[in-house]
Amino acid sequence: NKKEQKKKKKKIWPWVLTFVILAVGAGIFMGTMQFAKEEDSFIQTAAAFAEALVMDDEGTLGDYIHPKMYNSLYPLNYENVERCETKIVDYSQEETEALAAELQIQYGMTDPIGTLYRVRVGCTVYGEDTYACAMDVLVGRIGTAMYVLKAENISD
Fold first, then answer.
1. d(CA 139, CA 66)
2. How far is it, in rounded angstroms, from Cα 32 to Cα 35?
3. What is the 3-state secondary structure (H, E, C) of 103-136?
4. What span, in angstroms and rounded, lies between the C-alpha atoms of 99 and 150?
5. DSSP string, the chain
6. Which residue has the higher pLDDT, 117 or 69?
7. Degrees, nearest 5: CA angle 70-91-60
8. Which residue, among 112, 118, 113, 57, has the nearest Cα to 90 in the 3D structure?
9. For residue 107, what pLDDT band results from cuts at 50, 70 and 90?
10. 36: pLDDT confidence band, cut at 50, 70 and 90?
11. CA-based diameter of the chain, in Å?
């Protein structure tokens, strides 16, 4: 009787170990996928914002900036623009404290910034002439929404 119980215990351990390994692997995979999805949404927001800024599309720009920041953007003044292609050059997660303080002073924004990414976007502008420009776009999560909080280092 005891020998049969030992055999049953020996047969269960490989299954338990396999289940634990699969559960840990699934947890790591799901965590990685969640992080990648969030990172992609910051990058996509920055690219869409840069394209709308170059194309001087006020309606689209309004979707990407915080309501307290309306009327704070200035057009880049590219003339006769037919299209704009964007390419992500680099991105990194940034600390939020300095920008949060700046936004509070400049726009009266008191909402905390959850996550902040600096995304370097390269743009090729096609029209009468072809231009290339680059800009750093700071994209932050405020509450459940994602906003472009600052665009800087815009250069031709």
1. 11
2. 5
3. HHHHHCCCCCEEEEEEEEEEEEEEECCEEEEEEE
4. 9
5. -HHHHHHHHHHHHHHHHHHHHHHHHHHHHHHHHHHHHHHHHHHHHHHHHHHHHHHT-HHHHHHHB-GGGTT-------SSEEEEEEEEEEEEEE-SHHHHHHHHHHH---SPEEEEEEEEEEEEEEESSEEEEEEEEEEEEETTEEEEEEEEEEE-
6. 117
7. 30
8. 118
9. confident
10. low
11. 90
Reading the block at residue 112, the tokens are 């905390």
* Residue 110, token pair as written in the block: 């008191």
Whose tokens are 């309501």? That residue is: 67
Joined together, the tokens standing for residue 105 give 């002073």
Distance of alpha carbon 58 from alpha carbon 29, whole angstroms: 39
What backbone phi and psi angles, to 5 degrees, belong to 119? -120, 120
Phi then psi for residue 77, to 5 deg, are 60, 35
